[in-house]
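JOB MANIFEST
job_type = single_chain_structure
chain_count = 1
residues = 511
[input]
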Amino acid sequence: MKITILVFMLAMLTWGKEIDVKAINKAIEQTSQNTKALNQNSWYAKENWLTSLTEKQLRQMFNLEVDDKLVEFQEIDVLEKANVRPSKWDWRDVAGKNWVSPVKNQGVCGSCVAFAAVATLETQINVTAVNPFLNLQLSPQHLFSCGGGKCSYGWRPEPAAKFLKKTGVVDEACMPYISGAQGDDQACQSRCQDSDSRVVKIIDFERPTWFFKNKEKVKKALLKGPLVTTMKVYEDFLAYSHGVYKHVKGPALGGHAISLVGYDDEKQAFLIRNSWGDSWGEKGFGYISYEDISGIGNQTWLYEVPTSSKYLVLEYPRNQDILSQNIKFKLTTSGLKETESLNYTIKDLSSRSLELKTLTSRLNEDVELDTTTLKDGKYEVVITSRDEQGRITLTSRPHVFYILNQQPVVDVSFKFKNTQSLNVLSGRVEVQIQARSQSVPLTDIEFHFKNAEGYEVVRQTKSQSEVMDLTWATGQLKNGKYEVWVVGKIQTEKLKYQFQSPSVFVQVNNP
């Protein structure tokens, strides 16, 4: 039997009483004493509107699907010396100004994704416009109701980002939020009559992390703007008051989406903006430890908004795409004149010579590239528009892409770290995976394990890192013999390659 799972719904709630805040604070104190934690890296709990909600209300709030943490992939953090980042970043205080829009409250509807997306977009608009005083209030109700979310089962950040790009979101006055009071869904048609003229869109988005942990990538992305992220919520998180949160007590309730707005290396924590009103946490904000088990930052989304009404965006290929055969570039433009021309400059990043290839077209002409005329490897494309005098009017963001037309050469292997014997694996086991390719990176890495009865489980990440650490929580498994192996894949619409490591047999033996 083989079970392939990327994300999981967490177990349903199993209690029917108020959260015991005193017991949480006692557990925090005990944990701090055991770990000799500094006061600044501890946290405190208090009662709030969430700690007395019913089981039914809480169940409805946490329907976002998140990883079950049986296996956690982690890229090896590398701080680029040439671009040393600040040790602290807080979008509430950059250049002495607050760029973050006001905190809102989702109520008892599972609409956290819409609130996180709107919060991130509102702040990103301020950042891109270099104007923290725009005070744009967008509608989470419109995004949630028209995008496909439901109070009873929530939504996901990926379709939310795609909806913001394709359709956009209206302002709060056009469709006010009313689902939070009773957890009732609202019809998309309840938006204002002139909604089409009040839409705000993003022009693109990227995923700094995608089913893997890498603090440095998240911090680097935060310097560009806030991020949407997901996390697993435990009972004690509802009672967070202040300090650096790290789970100490209570069951997992489900998945939740929030907005990341900063980090603090001294606190060893990310700064979050929640959607539970300003009575929760530090006036709606809070710090979560880099090492918390919630999975914060393992999936992130960064939005790109236009700097003006005139822009040039490369839609296809997307950043990091793998291309083969003949492809057609796809653009989104605004404000360009039909008399302007476009230049596509392609650089070979796999060669020291940085060979250039330039394609030229008129504004509305299709531009194709026969990738078989180029060798397999890594490339960059930048598009510029020029007026009739040949002056550059706009430049797109660089997009990196790969060409693959030949059979790739790939080596996939793994080893257990800090393990003296494969016959006595227990607890959290560290594994290092190596997936090296000569021409293009892998698109997927899978960790497989199968017990003696043939029950197989697969966990997958989208990281393109050649070396990756993995934590395997064997405490969630039955004791016994397991076969373990790793699979690397290169998958596109046109290509499908798969490479498998040799198997290793281990014995899980937990007390």
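[summary]
The first strand starts at residue 2 and ends at 4.
The CA atoms of residues 229 and 297 lie 6 Å apart.
exit_status = 0
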